[in-house]
Amino acid sequence: MDPLTLALVFAKLLALVLGSVVALLAYRAYRRTGLSGLKYFALGLSIITAGTVLVGIFHHLLGVSVRLGMVIESLILSIGFVVMIAGLYQY
After folding, report:
1. pLDDT per position as a tens digit, 23-62
2. Phi and psi (nearest 5°) for 71?
3. Considering only Cβ atoms within 10 Å of each terminal Cβ, which end of the chain, N or C, has fewer?
């Protein structure tokens, strides 16, 4: 594995871990406070985190092109942000 690919794998794993921790903290805050906006925030962040990692998997394991991967990632990110915005508007 070349150094750039290794760096990309490390960066994606780091994003997965950090995004998961923040989503878990938001979900715990929802359970503690009962504010539904926090539940949607945690869900949206989970979608964004999963989307970031899935694009790398699509590219390396399924042979999806980089450009198509970027389109898929942008769509997944947009969905996650819409969920987060919807939750914040409920508050």
Report:
1. 999 999 999 999 988 999 999 999 999 998 888 888 888 8
2. -65, -45
3. N
**C-beta of residue 49 within 8 angstroms of C-beta of residue 30:** no
44 Cβ contact partners less than 8 Å away, ≥ 6 residues apart? 80, 81, 82, 83, 84, 85, 87
Q: Could you please report the per-residue DSSP string of 29-73?
A: HHHHH--HHHHHHHHHHHHHHHHHHHHHHHHHHH---HHHHHHHH
The number of C-alpha atoms within 13 Å of 46 and in the hemisphere containing its C-beta is: 11
Structure tokens that stand for 52 in this block: 């970031």
d(CA 18, CA 38): 17
pLDDT in tens, 67-82: 998 899 999 999 999 9
Tokens of 47: 């979608």
Residue type, 60: H
